[in-house]
Amino acid sequence: MISITINGKKINIEGPSTILEAAKKNGIDIPVLCHHPALELWGGCRMCLVEIEKMPRLQTSCTVPVADGMTVYTETPRVVAARKAMLEFLLINHPLQCPTCDKAGECALQDLTVRYGAVAGRFEEGKRTFPENVDDPIVVRNMERCIMCTRCVRMCDGVQGAFAIGVVGRGARSHVEPFSGGRYNCEYCGNCLNVCPVGAIMSRLHRYTYRPWQMDKTVRTICPFCGVGCTLSLEIRGDAIQKVSPAFGTGVNNGLLCGRGMFGYGYVGSPERLKTPLLRKNGKLEPASWDEALALAASRLLEIKNRYGGQAIGGIAGSRCTNEENYAFQKFLRAGFGSNNIDSVARLGLLHAQNLLEGVFGQGAAANVIQGIPRSDAVLIAACDPTRTNPVMGLQVRAAAKAGKKVVTIGHAQGLNRHRTHSLPAAFGTEGIALAGLLRELLRTKKFLPGENPELEAAIRGFELPELEEVEMLTGVPPAVITGAASALKDAATSSIIAGRELAASMDARRNFMLLAAIGYILNSRFFLISENPNEQGLIDMGCAPDILPGGRPLTLQTFRERCEQEWGGKLNPEPGLTLMEMFEQAGDTVRAMYIMGENPAFNLPGRKKVKEALGKLDFLVVQDIFMTETASLADIVLPSKAWSEKEGTYTNLEKRVQRLRKALEKDKNQESGMEDWRILAGIGKRAGLNNMSYAASSDIIGEIARVSPLHTGLGLEDLEEDGMMWPYKGKPLRMGGRVPPLPSLRAMASSLDAARVVLEKTLFHSGTLSRHSGALLDIMSGPEARMSPETAGQLGIPEGGKVKISTADGEMVLKAQIEKGLPAGAVFAGNNFGEAGSLGLFGYHLEPESKTPVLTVSDLKIALFEGHIP
Amino acid sequence: MKNSFGPGALALLNEIKTKYPTGRAAIMPALYVAQEEFGWLMPEALEAVADCLELPEMTVRSTATFYSMYRHRKAGRNVIRICTNVSCMVLGARTLKGVLEGLYGVAPGGVSPDGRFSLEIADCIGACGSGPAMLVNDDLHTGLDAKKIIEVLENYK
Lengths: 871, 157
Ligand code: SF4
Ligand code: SF4
Ligand code: SF4
Ligand code: FES
Ligand code: FES
Fold this sequence. Notes:
The complex is a heterodimer.
Chain A: E1 2-6, E2 9-13, H1 19-25, E3 49-52, E4 59-60, E5 71-73, H2 77-93, H3 108-116, E6 139-141, H4 151-159, E7 165-168, E8 175-178, H5 191-195, E9 201-203, E10 217-222, E11 231-237, E12 240-246, H6 259-263, E13 278-281, E14 284-287, H7 290-308, E15 313-316, H8 323-337, E16 342-343, H9 350-361, E17 378-382, H10 386-389, H11 391-402, E18 406-410, E19 422-424, H12 431-445, H13 454-462, H14 468-475, H15 479-490, E20 495-499, H16 501-504, H17 509-523, E21 525-529, H18 536-541, E22 548-549, E23 553-554, H19 558-568, H20 580-585, E24 593-597, H21 601-604, H22 608-617, E25 620-625, E26 637-640, E27 649-652, E28 658-661, H23 677-687, H24 698-708, E29 757-761, H25 775-780, E30 785-788, H26 790-796, E31 803-807, E32 812-819, E33 827-831, E34 844-847, E35 854-857, E36 862-866
Parallel strand pairs in A: 1-5, 15-16, 15-24, 17-18, 17-20, 18-19, 20-21, 24-25, 25-26, 29-33, 30-32
Antiparallel strand pairs in A: 1-2, 3-4, 3-5, 6-9, 7-8, 10-11, 11-12, 13-14, 13-26, 22-23, 27-28, 30-33, 31-32, 31-36, 34-35
Chain B: H1 7-19, H2 27-38, H3 43-53, H4 57-66, E1 78-83, H5 86-90, H6 93-104, E2 117-122, E3 134-136, E4 139-141, H7 146-153
Parallel strand pairs in B: 1-2
Antiparallel strand pairs in B: 1-3, 3-4
The structure holds iron/sulfur cluster (3 copies) and FE2/S2 (inorganic) cluster (FES) (2 copies).
One FE2/S2 (inorganic) cluster (FES) is lined by residues 32-35, 43-48, 60, 62 of chain A.
């Protein structure tokens, strides 16, 4: 323990600390400009100078560590004079624009000038001038206001790892800009904007629309875009979100955000939001009253149940809906209508991945804290790119690389090109084989396994693994590269493994995950599963799957089923229901009606034509959504729901952390009468005579979840105040695990390493179809793109700025070519975000027999230059 | 437009890379190679350096713009750097500027219409004792006056 005295106050400090940190913890305020707790120390602005006894010169408290017996003064006349001098220097060039600057009121320079008093200008020379730069759709640069603290550059280089901006020029002409000097063309995380202490770089989204002191309230909530579940603050004025601001020091993200979370909120205020219920009358969707719509939904569902039985109703729960809503949804269908046909987009990979891992390691195998990633000695990225799908988790991987840890990527991960120590660039679809090679090398070099689980070890040793030469033939990865990666990994005392849908949505999913589990066991790894949607994990935990009940208990477990029956007051069908794709396959046949809550399967699933046809064959389709999606436009009843910022509830992130959403807006300015998804279900339930769906508030439902789900036993909202609650909450995980089936053989694969292929990708700037309604994200990326490397473009004969036509047996589309370095040869990447050009329209699927996960297929692929006009 | 290094430059760069422990450390010599190859440090030149050293483009640009001795603008066939710091100024450097402008039509920071000369204002080039001084490409010329400067420059086509 270290004891120091600051301004006469005795302070004891545990562990290493700077003077600034020690002072802050003890309520002593020292002004800073260049220092920011999320950034590397720099010590450049000299605002934080303090006087230390026995040291002749003033010291920068943000960089000087405390030492035992130190006596520090933070506000002596000498210190004040020095700070004043620093401010005078800054104000030589800083323009007097406070009256028109958006930052005024929350500007560090303004505050400090108020605190230390303005100085009379002593210079005759004019101030330096830089014209305001508005070349970028998101960021406006006023470099006259820049005080050269380099916070933004340290954020972009050191934390975001994007290296998109830098100090240009020197002396009084120095300023910060992106490489192009105009548009940023960067990752658009906005994190640089969030650390600028002055008004030099600011978001254009809310320019000139408010003053910070005019904000009505700030509401801390969770990002609505992906499974990382970042904490952010919504700044509210009137009936609109004015901006998103970071909450440094809190949440899984510690204040960092990605572009979707930072700039994507605009969809909430979109004029295209659904406003009233719509009923199909004479083939057209017409506005109707809530009463009429809910009553009709109830009577039609009952009618179908009475005529065909409950199993004729299928339901798709919502990955953007809260736990409470998804819980209510499965209960509504199971207990209310006797149907177990309940599934969700977790079927596209996450559920299977999780089941396979939990089969080996037990429930909660992938419940780990992402902030642990940079603390592990090695990180293995298996066939995914966390920097795109779960960007803030991606930052943890970049942080690991920056801290000198080993980062090994398998397959393509563009966002880690600069942040890895080893790359195994296995061709698409062969990543699992590269894993086999890696495991073989690990077993060869690591003779002694941990010894904790002899059964598992025996199984692992029994795996038949291919020779490295064979691996090379199939994947294109040379043996030396695999050997190198294995030797980097083998001595890691702790490690993290990140895997995504790609390995699970595969005919070889079991093999892929058994290999991954074996590697994870040998390396003592924590697992992380990519989760595209904000509450995908919650879907699983709430029992939104045909064969599981809340808490992940199997439907076939009679004792648990009975417990649910008691609580829910209805008989449950003991037979598991249909999975996601099966419901569509049987539409019009055994499935007569569907209830879809906040999902857009007509757009977000492979086999798009067939899915749309299936929806058309139904006798009855109900859709709850906030926009008129492709799916809603086919419905018989469309029920407008509330957006994420307008409701209370909880989400479960990919760490399995339950976190609170907080209502920020009563209703949006454009919206008249959307209802929370759970309230709609309750309304229909009441009209259908279900006696167990009457909730008055979302908090009633979490109370019930805590009673029913053995995992969430006793969990209450009060437990979620700070950073939510980590798995297994207060509940009991299901004991299982230890099942390691023999490794399915490596299927003989035709090596098609050179063939062109189209790859479905998650774009960094969009999120499903929701973000089509976010103006800012559209400004960053306005339309569909086909990204490819210069080599691929050359092979296909596609010039920069050209258009590409991609056609398959399932569909065709024309996209703008985007030629980028750092992409693998032969691959054309296209996201599924924009209407007709949503790339899933190109894919068919097969069902993986065990899990019924749809595995994407492409047939008759043609990629060519398109010279006409895009209609 | 040119956007990559020719074989000669590449050989030079590979040699440079062996002499420095990291790509970052090799930025400055690599920029000189790029400047020779591309004529000046146009964006394509910076990108080529970044590619070659496997560094972010922005890192290369920040480094390059810190130094005024790199050519950041399109240059003439011959680059005149005329010193206007105190000694040279006192000895008449300002009139020389006027001479160049009158005769060749080249102003500081610009290129003569025939592309023959570009003119940069340099800070002290270490010839204070015999100013006014200038560098033409890599050659130093001192003791200049309105007549001598023309004589000297006539040797540069
Ligand atoms: S928005 Fe993000 S990626 Fe872009 S310059 Fe700022 S910190 Fe860098
Ligand atoms: S733009 Fe802002 S954060 Fe960046 S150096 Fe200037 S003042 Fe600092
Ligand atoms: S990483 Fe995910 S949760 Fe975090 S801000 Fe981005 S989209 Fe939102
Ligand atoms: S805050 Fe300490 S030097 Fe800038
Ligand atoms: S002042 Fe001109 S060379 Fe030094």
